[in-house]
Design brief:
This protein is α/β, with parallel strands linked by helices and about 325 residues long. It has 14 helices and twelve strands.
Length: about 325
Amino acid sequence: MVKITDVARHAGVSPSTVSYALSGKRPISEETRLRIEASIRELGYRPHAGARALASSRSNVLALVVPLRTGIHVPVAMQFAVSVVTTARRHDHDVLLLTQEEGEDGLRRVADTALVDALIVMDVGLHDPRLSLLRSLDLPSVLIGFPQDADGLTCVDLDFKAAGELCVERLAGLGHRVVALIGSPPEVYVRRTAFAQRVVQGFTAAAARGGLASSVHPCDAQPDAARRVAEQLLREHPALTGVVVHNEAVLEPLIDAFEQLGLRVPADLSITAICPDELAASLRVPVTSVTLPSTELGERAVELLMAKLGGTEVPGATLLPPRMTERASTAPRALA
């Protein structure tokens, strides 16, 4: 194992100078720093994590707070987690994953133990009870999600309101006049989860602007629930020809249910969705969708945290515009 003394000998400097170059505690000349960096690369030296943390008064660990509550689609949550972990490693940081529903107490416990340098918080509510604590902590934080009041916070997310609008506008542009949103499980709305509420806002606003008849239907993430919602929609809205789906788990069961009930996709019913591209493209009927950019959002969250840890000012709000990909599930409304 290469030691700091090996680097010092190779670079022709003292071990303390190498330590200063790594920690930044004392200034050294640019020439010396470059020589030390060249020796580190050539020898393959990696600073011991514990020593590095002591030198910088940091743990080099980020906390990712993603409570796996009921109604959360775990595969998508894990896509965010993988992106955060991968990006953090590029910055030589590890990630502590916190999945329990612990609220303010859990955040305070993590902050008080000095286990982590900063926090990334997911599953944000419109009126999230954790916000006042996040504003008061010394630890930097980034939210993947937008509460109703984002003052004093750093937030990044897909513009879910615009995504809901874009899905409706696409259906309206194809001539559809009666549309429905099949949304997240009911408990997600009960918790006032921000992203789900934003989609509803965008859906209803765009439908009203376009003069479309519309309705919103929460749906449990189970195939039998998809069947029940499909039956309810056709019973209550027999003129329905356009559907927006914001519930990854029931996309395929919904297509199956509607077709079993006599509606062909897209000849009789056009479907758009907000979901990961790989899911939309893999279905039996590939679905026109607004992509859920989990990889980009995870990267952005970590980059914002790294900038904050480095003392750089960052924007309080980062909203990614929705991007739609046309696939086989949408078509012009068939004329009676």
